[in-house]
């Protein structure tokens, strides 16, 4: 079972901007999206480094 669902707002446990889960790879990895200075960004993180905002 997935820890997060698409649309959840998360952040890194170590601190980060608010990010939105945009894809669930079903293996513990998620693609997240956010904006930095108005520029859209995306990256993939493992569920163990993310927490709900």
Q: Largest sheet at a glance? A: 5 strands, antiparallel
Instruction: State the total count of DSSP E strands.
Output: 5
Write down the secondary-structure element order.
EEEEE
> Level of helix content?
under 10%
Structural class: mainly beta
Helix segment count? Answer: 0
Gyration radius, in Å: 10 Å
How much is the average pLDDT? Answer: 97
Biggest β-sheet: strands ordered side by side in the sheet = 4-3-2-1-5
- Low-pLDDT runs of 5+ residues are none
How far apart, in Å, are the first and last alpha carbons?
20 Å
Question: How would you sum up this structure, described in words?
Answer:
InterPro entries: DUF2158. This is DUF2158 domain containing protein. It holds the Pfam family DUF2158. The chain has 53 residues and is mainly beta. It has one domain. Helix content is 0%, strand content 55%. The protein contains no helices and five strands. The chain has strands at 9-12, 19-24, 29-36, 39-46, 50-52. A five-stranded antiparallel β-sheet has the order 4-3-2-1-5, with no helix packed on it. The mean pLDDT is 97.
Write the layout of secondary structure elements.
Blueprint: E1 9-12, E2 19-24, E3 29-36, E4 39-46, E5 50-52
Antiparallel strand pairs: 1-2, 1-5, 2-3, 3-4
List keywords for this structure.
53 residues, mainly beta, five-stranded antiparallel sheet
Gist of the model:
It comes from Flavobacterium aquidurense. With 53 residues, the chain is mostly beta strands.
């Amino acid at each position: 079972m997935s820890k997060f669902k698409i649309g959840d707002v998360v952040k890194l446990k170590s601190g980060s901007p608010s990010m939105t889960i945009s894809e669930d790879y079903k293996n513990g990895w998620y693609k997240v999206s956010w904006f930095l200075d108005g520029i859209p960004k995306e990256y993939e993180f493992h569920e163990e480094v993310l927490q709900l905002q």
